[in-house]
Amino acid sequence: MTGYAAFALFYDQVMGDRGREAAFVQALIQKHRPKASSVLELACGTGAILERLQLHYEVTGLDASQPMLDIAARKVPQARFHHEDMTHFELDETFDAVLCVFDSINHLVRFADWERVFDRAAAHLGDGGIFVFDVNMERKLAAFAVAPPWTQWFGDDNLLVIDVRDEGDGVYAWKVRIFEHSGDSAYRLYVEDIREVAFPLEQVRHALAERFRRVRVIDAERARPTTRSERLYFVCEV
User: Fold this and answer.
1) What is the DSSP letter of 230?
2) Buried b (16+ CB within 10 A) or exposed e, 65-86
């Protein structure tokens, strides 16, 4: 199997508990859209964020991977889910908040596709609604590329190996290999090749300013964004 059809089987085991990230996103919604009642998450994956937000909002998820959505639907049965590409979707409704987190937008290697996501998010927000998303900055991706391959044992003697390589022009290839223990000394190999790209902060700011009334940039680890920021959150208001 290729793509997230393979990785979906192990995603939650590998990623572990994401309660901290979910709590941070929820805090952003509460601060910047306190009266929000509905949330749409783009690239919702297996539903880690929606699982927490369901306690406070009417939640909807959208993802291009049906296997990931199948897992999310079991975890958050009261949510609505859409099997759609986040660069091209039309749901014929608006939401108080649209989310795209866990650096999902970095997987789009053309900036024109980032802009399409911005357009789709803005089109699905009601008055005063917010679009919240995060990105890995190139500093973080470059650090992964010079580091040794990362290995992690998980589950029932399964092994994860990730090697990040710099392909140039801000594009980084994540070579993901999962060795599933299938008994005794036998393993089954799952292969995942994921690409991420980072664009300059000012390029992202400019594109957002053309579409949103107000744009805030937040570094969760610092008082304000700096050249040392590795991950940034954006809160954009229509």
Assistant:
1) S
2) bebbbebbbeebeebebbebeb
pLDDT-derived band at 19, boundaries 50, 70, 90: confident
Confidence of residue 1 (pLDDT cuts 50, 70, 90): very low
pLDDT confidence of residue 26? 97
CATH number for the 139-197 domain, one of 3.30.365.10, 3.30.360.10, 2.20.25.110, 1.10.357.140? 2.20.25.110
3-state secondary structure of 229: coil
Cα distances (Å, whole numbers) of residue 85 to 61, 69, 105, 164, 234: 12, 13, 12, 25, 21
Backbone phi, psi, residue 157, to 5°: 65, 35
pLDDT digits (tens, 9 = 90+) for 80-102: 999 999 999 999 999 999 999 99
Tokens, residue 131: 């679009």
Element (H, E) at 113: helix 111-123
Other beta carbons within 10 Å of 27? 11
Amino acid at residue number 227? T
4-136+199-237 falls under which CATH superfamily?
Vaccinia Virus protein VP39 (3.40.50.150)
pTM over 0.90: yes
List the one residue out of 128, 105, 103 whose CA is nearest residue 32.
128
